[in-house]
User: Which sequence fits this backbone?
């Protein structure tokens, strides 16, 4: 396990840090077991309230200085982090794969995403533009500028254990904010590894202590952060259940929350689809990361004319899937995160059957040699109705529901007919169909693709979704604005004081 040594991960790790040093804590121990083979990789000491408060206090004092650094100088720190990540790409990608269970290719891809967002943020550090407006008053100038906000609390999910932190942190740092990260308690070592990687960059550049805090822990630590008025923005990625709790707590104190929650993503496969594209998009989308991406394809809405033929293609493609150790690049599908996730998968299959679902590819839990962790399951496909309760719900596992449509209006209604609104896609060579899908009367999701599946977004676009997905946007485009406070400035350079709206007030 050389990658653990490279990342400075031990059997017992401290889990609370101000960025430059690790703090002592009497918090519970989080044990990290690999879903790949069930091995205990290490333990991490979670934050107790005193350690949490110490990190927040350090972050407050760091912010007072960090916000005065010119944004391009902050960008230079992020550039160096990007260089460091390039050096640690293999080790960190391997840890992501081993601790979370996604394929090594996807683990490495996740670290590549971190590197990409660093590059994006470096450019952004010279482009935090406001607008200039024309004043209605003579001799006046009006403009707006963006200032740093303060502490950004980051709560992340297990399935992207490092990338989500980087999407938030790199942008927040160039914007002049300081961050405190609570990684998922299911992947705590990824949090420790990232902190180890960036510490040296912060040290050698004399970055004030407290710019990048880490508070390992469970839900209670996330709850402290949500309720804390010292944290103006809480960026939370995870289930809709968690998002509703965070939104209520942050809303109660009129703080700002950025929510990236569950999806229930569909691909519409038109009668005029390129079938090769459709099959690859559907199968990769449904089984990649063992169905544990927020953008995983959960539903296929297939035109009735090609329905039967497409079913055969699907059965054939699923029969070729290799399930096993994700560090072995020959395997397509790795394990689920833990045995609770396996139970949810089994329950969902039973519920689907009870509601009348017909499995054309059967599921099941794998046992025996190579599957000792108990977390490996068979990707499966069921004919189902969109109205089934189980189809309306996001089960974080490789279960794909398929259904038929006649008209494009009907397909779009099915696609939109779920509580979530993250990612959507249509496979078609028909321009009219594609444009209808992208129109105001088309997909209601934050992401709508043509001839690409639902999963695998690039960092250049704003990422996020509508409805129960939470409405937040992260990563590219102008997502940076949520990390800053906007200020409108009006300057009078005359010796008179004309009032707005022509109001007279003579003394
Ligand atoms: P989860 O909701 O169980 O946990 C996510 C994080 O929230 C963890 O760090 C957890 O400790 C914390 N948490 C849980 N309850 C909390 C509370 N009441 N207050 C504060 N913090 C709390 O989710 P998970 O199982 O780790 O991840 C899977 C879910 O995440 C799926 O629903 C998936 O779709 C979603 N997800 C969404 C996106 C996106 O960008 N939209 C990306 C990745 C994952």
Assistant:
């Amino acid at each position: 396990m050389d990658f653990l040594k490279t990342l400075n991960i031990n059997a017992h790790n401290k889990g609370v840090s101000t960025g430059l040093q690790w703090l002592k804590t009497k918090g519970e121990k989080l044990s990290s077991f690999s879903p790949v083979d069930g091995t205990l990789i290490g333990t991490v000491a979670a934050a107790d309230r005193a350690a949490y408060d110490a990190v927040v206090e350090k972050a407050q004092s760091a912010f007072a200085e960090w916000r005065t650094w010119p944004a391009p100088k902050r960008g230079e720190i992020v550039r160096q982090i990007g260089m460091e990540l390039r050096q640690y790409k293999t080790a960190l990608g391997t840890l992501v794969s081993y601790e979370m269970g996604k394929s090594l290719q996807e683990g490495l891809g996740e670290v590549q995403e971190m590197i990409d967002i660093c590059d994006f943020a470096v450019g952004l550090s010279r482009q935090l533009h406001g607008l200039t407006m024309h004043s209605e008053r003579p001799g006046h100038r009006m403009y707006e500028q963006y200032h740093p906000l303060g502490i950004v609390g980051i709560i992340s999910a297990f399935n992207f254990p490092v990338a989500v932190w980087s999407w938030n942190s790199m942008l927040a740092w160039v914007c002049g904010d300081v961050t405190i990260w609570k990684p998922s308690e299911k992947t705590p070592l990824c949090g420790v590894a990232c902190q180890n990687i960036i510490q040296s960059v912060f040290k050698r550049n004399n970055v004030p202590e407290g710019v990048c805090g880490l508070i390992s822990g469970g839900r209670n630590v996330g709850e402290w952060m949500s309720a804390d008025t010292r944290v103006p923005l809480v960026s939370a990625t995870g289930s809709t259940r968690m998002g509703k709790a965070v939104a209520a707590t942050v809303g109660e104190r009129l703080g700002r929350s950025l929510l990236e929650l569950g999806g229930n993503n569909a691909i519409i496969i038109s009668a005029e689809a390129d079938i090769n594209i459709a099959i690859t998009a559907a199968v990769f989308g449904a089984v990649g990361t063992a169905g544990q991406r927020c953008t995983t394809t959960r539903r296929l809405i297939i035109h009735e004319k090609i329905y039967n033929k497409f079913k055969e293609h699907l059965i054939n493609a699923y029969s070729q899937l290799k399930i096993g150790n994700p560090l072995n690049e020959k395997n397509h599908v790795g394990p689920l995160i833990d045995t609770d996730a396996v139970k949810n998968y089994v329950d969902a299959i039973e519920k689907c059957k009870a509601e009348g679902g017909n499995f054309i590819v059967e599921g099941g839990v794998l046992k025996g040699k190579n599957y000792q962790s108990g977390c490996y399951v068979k990707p499966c496909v069921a004919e189902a109705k969109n109205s089934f309760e189980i189809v309306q719900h996001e089960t974080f596992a490789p279960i794909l529901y398929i259904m038929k449509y006649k008209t494009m209006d009907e397909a779009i209604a099915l696609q939109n007919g779920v509580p979530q609104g993250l990612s959507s896609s249509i496979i078609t060579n028909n321009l009219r169909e594609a444009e209808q899908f992208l129109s105001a009367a088309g997909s209601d999701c934050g992401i709508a693709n043509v001839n690409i599946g639902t999963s695998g977004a690039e960092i250049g676009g704003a990422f996020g979704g509508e409805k129960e997905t939470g409405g937040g946007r992260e990563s590219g485009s102008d997502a940076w604005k949520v990390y800053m406070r906007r200020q409108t400035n009006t300057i009078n350079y005359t010796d008179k004081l004309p009032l707005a709206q022509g109001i007279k007030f003579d003394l």
In short: Residues 2 and 91 are 8 Å apart (CA to CA). The chain has 14 helices and 23 strands. The longest strand covers residues 140-148.
